[in-house]
């Protein structure tokens, strides 16, 4: 698994993730890139779960963005609907975070489309550790979104055996 966390604070939205790929209890790779910027639409994606499934979902999400002229709300709703109802897609084992300058969403194969209330959300095996750390840092520090994502991922990596310290972090300007 992995850990992906997103923080929206001030004039930034940041999505970061670690680079660990595990097969069972074995670390197979430590430098995977699970957070990607889709520059055409100015959207960041992050995934946790099966790599092939996640890449499939990212590609389908990008197709939905193209189809809906970059409208992230329509793209996530249509992807979630397709993911939930399609017999083949329904078997994909991954979670996905997507963020643009205005919105952040978590998408799942069960049809979930969740927008965080406080601008902080996380997925993956270390997601709850990163989420708790990020929420505490948002509430008790003046750190930037970038600093919070980095610190919360390092905290998760110190606790979760399926998360490492090799981070990929992408940042966009946020509309305030």
Automatic annotation (TrEMBL):
Residues the entry annotates as binding Na(+): 157, 160, 163
Gene3D superfamilies reported in the protein's UniProt record: Glutamine Phosphoribosylpyrophosphate, subunit 1, domain 1
Main localisation: cytoplasm
Regulation (activators, inhibitors): Allosterically activated by HslU binding.
Positions of the catalytic residues: 2
Location(s) in or outside the cell: Cytoplasm
Domain of life of the native organism: Bacteria
A molecular function (GO) term: threonine-type endopeptidase activity
Catalyses which reaction(s): ATP-dependent cleavage of peptide bonds with broad specificity
GO biological process: proteolysis involved in protein catabolic process
Enzyme class: hydrolase
The keyword Protease is assigned to this record: yes
InterPro entries (alphabetical): ATP-dep_Prtase_HsIV_su, Ntn_hydrolases_N, Proteasome_sua/b, Proteasome_suB-type
Positions of transmembrane segments: none
Tagged with keyword Protease: yes
SUPFAM superfamilies to which the protein is assigned, alphabetical: N-terminal nucleophile aminohydrolases (Ntn hydrolases) (SSF56235)
Protein task: Protease subunit of a proteasome-like degradation complex believed to be a general protein degrading machinery.
Assembly and interaction partners: A double ring-shaped homohexamer of HslV is capped on each side by a ring-shaped HslU homohexamer. The assembly of the HslU/HslV complex is dependent on binding of ATP.
NCBIfam families: ATP_dep_HslV (TIGR03692), PRK05456.1 (NF003964)
Similarity annotation: Belongs to the peptidase T1B family. HslV subfamily.
Name of the featured protein: ATP-dependent protease subunit HslV
Organism: Neptunomonas qingdaonensis
Lineage summary: Bacteria, Pseudomonadati, Pseudomonadota, Gammaproteobacteria, Oceanospirillales
Gene encoding the protein: hslV
